[in-house]
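Box 4.2: Ligand-aware structure prediction
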Amino acid sequence: MQNRAILYNFQTGHWQKYVYNLPTLKNDETLVKVAYAGLCGSDMHRIINPSKHESEIVMGHEVSGIVVASSNEKLVGKSVVVNPIGNCQKCFYCEHEQSQFCSNSRNIGKNVNGAFADYVIAPTKNIYITPADFPLELGVLADGVAVVLHSLQKLTFSPRSALIVGDGAMGCLFVAVLKALYSDIKIVLKGRHNIDLIKKMYHIDNEVKDEEFDLSVETVGRAQSDTLNDCIRQTVYGGSVLVTGVYPPDFTLSLDARTAFYKELKIYGINSFCVSAERDDFAEALQLIERHHNLFGSLITHYFSLDDFEKGVEKMSDKRNSPVVKVVYEPH
Ligand SMILES: [Zn+2]
Ligand SMILES: [Zn+2]
C-alpha cells in the first residue's frame, strides 16, 4: 500500500509530497488513516534547519484519525488518537512509573515515520479510541495536554493563582487546562502574539505590578534566562515553578539563585508525560479535552491541506499579523 508523506527535498529546498510503500503491519501494530495532524513547536526546529540525518523520517506526532487495519480487529473503523511515544515497557524507568525517561523509546514522527502523511503506523498499545462525540480535530492537542497534566502532578497544592510565561501553544494549553481543573484560579499570561486572543477566550486577568503567584510556568526556553527568572521573582515564598520550555544543548542558565533559594521555591523540570500501568497521562488528557471541549476548541487557529504544508509552516513562523496557536493539517 502506498503512502503520500511530506519530506524535505534537498534538491528543490522544499518540503514536498513523497510517495513510499508502507511496510506490512506487524502483529502488534495498527494502521491509521490520518484525519488531523498538528504542527508542534518541536517540529519547527527540524523544519527550519533540515538535516540529512533526520530528513528520512516523516514528522508529525500529534495525530487523530480512523483505524484501517489493526492487530486488534475491534479497532478497525474506530475514531482514534495516537499516543506518539513508543515506550519499551521493559527498562527500569518503564517498570517504575517513569516512562518519560525511557531511553529505548521509538517515537512516531521522530524515530519512526509520523503523521504528515495519508497514513501512519503505530503500536496498537498506543491507539486510544476517542470518547463518543469527541471532536476528532482536538485529538492533536492530547500530546500537549498530557504534558501539562504530567507537570501539574508535581504540585503538592491546588494553585489559586498562576503566572504563565509564553503564549505559544504550550502556554495557551496551560491556561486551558488550569481553567478546566480550577475554575476560580486567577491566571496571568505573559506573551506577545496570542495574548489578546487568549485573554478574550478565557477571561483571564491583567497583571498587577509586583504581583506574586502560587505557581509560575516557564514555557519559552531557548538561549535566554529572563523568563525563568521572571517566574522565580513572581512566585510566592514556598511556591512552585514548572519549566516546560526547551533550552538548547550547550546553554547554561544564568539563574537568580539567591531569590529562588531564599523563597524555598520548588523548581520542576518537565520532560514529557507518563503512560504506565498505574497512571496514563495521555488517557487523562483525552478525558479532560472531552469534558471541556469548549475550552480547547478555539486553540486550533489554522487548518491547511498537506499540499499547503509550507504555508502552515509560514503561518507558524510569522505571528505578527494574527494570532497563531495551533496549526493543523488535514491530509484528506
Ligand atoms: Zn508536540
Ligand atoms: Zn523503557
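In the box above, the bound molecule is zinc ion. The domain at 2-143+277-330 is CATH 3.90.180.10 (Quinone Oxidoreductase; Chain A, domain 1).
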